[in-house]
Specification:
Blueprint lengths: L6 E5 L3 H12 L3 E6 L2 H7 L5 E4 L5 H6 L7 E4 L5 H13 L5 E4 L3 H10 L3 E3 L1 H14 L3 E6 L4 E7 L9 H4 L1 H5 L1 E8 L2 E3 L13 E7 H9 L2
Parallel strand pairs: 1-2, 1-4, 2-3, 4-5, 5-6
Antiparallel strand pairs: 7-8, 8-11, 9-10, 9-11
Bound molecules: adenosine-5'-diphosphate.
Adenosine-5'-diphosphate binds next to helix 1 and strand 2.
Length: 220
C-alpha cells in the first residue's frame, strides 16, 4: 500500500457512487461503501474494502460506522434529495473532515454548500455539457466549465489552423483563449512554445472564455 493512501467512505451505490468507490479502491485507497439497499451492497462487495448496509439518514448508524474517522466522505445519493441533504447535514454535525456531495440542480448545490459540504459535484450536468458540445462539434473531446464564463476544452485542431504556429493563430487575441498543452500522439507538449506549429491530428487543450471556445468549435 502507498503511504498516501486515504480512507474514503462512499454513500449511495448507484451508477455514480459505485463508479467512485471502485475507482478509489483500484487506486489503492481504503473504501467503505454504504447503501441501504441490500442488492446494491452485494453487487459491489468484491470491488471495495468493506461494504455496509445502512440508512445514512439515521444518526446512530453513522456513529456506529465511525464515519468521522474517514478522510473523505462522498454523498452520492442521487434520486432522493431529502436523504442526500440530511445525510450531508449529519456528516457535518458528526465532524467529518471533508464532505463531497452530489447535487442535481444549482439550488440543491447551494443548499449543500450552506450546510457545509466542502465540495459539490454535478455529474449529470457536467456530462450533459460535454455530450452537448461534442454533438455540436465532433472536434470537442472534453469540456469542463470552471465558471459560467470560463472553460477548459480539449479540441482536435481544426484544419484551418494546421501548419500555423501558435503565435500565428492569434487565439489569445481573437478568442481570448490560451493553449495550455498540445497532445500529439503519445506526447504532451506543455507548455507549448509560441513558435510550435500545429499539425494534423493535434489535440489542443484550451482554457479561456466559453464564448471563445464556442467559436473554436465552429471552425472546420
Ligand atoms: P445514480 O443516479 O448515481 O445511479 P441513484 O440515486 O440511482 O444514483 O442511487 C443512489 C443510491 O443511494 C441507491 O442505491 C439508494 O439505495 C441509495 N440510498 C438512497 N437513500 C439512502 C440512504 N438514506 N442511506 C443509504 N443509501 C441510500
Amino acid at each position: 500500500m502507498k503511504n498516501n493512501n486515504k480512507q474514503f467512505a462512499v454513500i449511495g451505490l448507484g451508477r455514480f457512487g459505485s463508479s467512485i468507490a471502485t475507482t478509489l479502491f483500484k487506486l489503492g485507497h481504503e473504501v467503505l461503501a454504504i447503501d441501504m439497499n441490500e442488492e446494491q451492497v452485494q453487487k459491489i462487495s468484491e470491488t471495495v474494502t468493506h461494504v455496509v448496509q445502512a440508512d445514512t439518514t439515521d444518526e446512530n448508524s453513522l456513529k456506529a460506522l465511525g464515519i468521522r474517522n474517514f478522510d473523505v466522505v462522498v454523498v452520492a445519493i442521487g434520486e432522493d434529495i431529502q436523504s442526500n441533504v440530511l445525510t450531508t447535514l449529519l456528516l457535518k454535525e458528526l465532524g467529518v473532515k471533508y464532505i463531497v456531495a452530489k447535487a442535481r440542480t444549482e439550488l440543491h448545490g447551494k443548499m449543500l454548500t450552506k450546510i457545509g459540504a466542502d465540495r459539490v459535484v454535478y455529474p449529470e450536468r457536467d456530462m450533459g455539457l460535454r455530450v452537448a458540445h461534442n454533438l455540436v462539434s465532433t472536434n470537442v473531446l472534453e469540456y469542463i466549465e470552471l465558471s459560467p464564463d470560463l472553460s477548459v476544452a480539449e479540441i482536435t485542431a481544426p484544419k484551418i489552423l494546421v501548419g500555423r504556429s501558435l503565435a500565428e493563430t492569434n487565439l489569445r487575441v481573437k478568442y481570448e483563449l490560451n493553449v495550455v498543452a498540445i497532445k500529439r500522439n503519445e506526447a504532451l507538449i506543455v507548455p507549448p512554445p509560441s513558435d510550435e506549429k500545429i499539425r494534423t491530428g493535434d489535440i489542443l487543450i484550451l482554457i479561456g472564455q466559453s464564448k471563445g471556445i464556442q467559436k473554436m468549435e465552429e471552425l472546420e
